[in-house]
Amino acid sequence: MKLFSSPVFTVLAGCQRQLLSASGPAYSGVSQTAPRNIPVRTFAAVKTLKKDKKDDAEKEVKKEKRVIDDKNRHKPFGKTAWAPVDDVYVMRYYPRTLHDPAEAIDMLKKFQTLDFTPHNQPVYIDLKLDMKLEKKKKVDPFVSTVHLPHAFKAEMNRVLVFTEDANQATVARENGAVFAGGVELIQPILDDEISADFYVAVPDILPKLVPLKNKLRKKFPKSKRGSVGINVPKMLELFKTGHEYMVESDCYVRTQIATLDMPSEHIFANLQTILVDVCSHRPASLGPFIERAIIASHTSEAVWFKSEDVLPKSPEKEE
């Protein structure tokens, strides 16, 4: 009996109880509903070593886009053939057809005849521009006003002239300005009592028009748009019959150029005027500015056309 009451036996019995409680419910006479002592970890977890961002950047290799030249291939890469043989085909298996500008305009007129749609419906163009410049710079989105050779609107634009010179105000009214005046026009514009399609100003009054910046926003007079200058009659001549377009969503130009009942030659002339003005906003030495060009009427399908055929050719290319 003295052997079982020795300290060695007491330690062994305690170790056995600890092992049984840690390993789950006992299998020999121990109740499963008895409280269990869950062991607690008394040491801290080892922190993971974070890799330097510079090392990761050096290891990552940027994958360059693979450019495939289809000029000398019997068919385009990933397509079935250069052109379909049948009249009915799946479009994604063939490259998109690019039409001549004159042919595209004639197609819109045929669509209108076949679909019995209004003959005077508007004609739109949708251009995608390459806004890249040298050294990771880009062309800023711009707003431009051009004088179309063949107007498609019956009404003239309403133009307001800001000037404090009484003589200039009189000249402006004689040349078709709806309103002409100085700072006294600011409050009526803020109160929506008077409005106009375009706002032009002389340089001297421009600092006094600051309260109208939030109200007019894109219509606020700016020298880049040609709405600030000394020659008031010239500005009125442009903006009364001018057509305004702008770059939307960073690189897209979507605007009306004509109506479908106009002669094809007039539609082509308006198209050429707008495309030439668009391409003037980037140096020609950087390559084509227009990546994709689409023309469509209000009810027809979109027709892709070759924009380079509309632009005048440079003397170097003609040689």
Automatic annotation (TrEMBL):
Its main location: mitochondrion. Belongs to the universal ribosomal protein uL1 family. Transmembrane segments: none annotated. InterPro entries: Ribosomal_uL1-like (IPR023674), Ribosomal_uL1/biogenesis (IPR028364), Ribosomal_uL1_3-a/b-sand (IPR016095). One of its GO terms (cellular component) is ribonucleoprotein complex. Keywords: Mitochondrion, Ribonucleoprotein, Ribosomal protein, Transit peptide. It is found in: Mitochondrion. PANTHER family: 54S RIBOSOMAL PROTEIN L1, MITOCHONDRIAL (PTHR36427), LARGE RIBOSOMAL SUBUNIT PROTEIN UL1M (PTHR36427:SF3). This is Large ribosomal subunit protein uL1m.
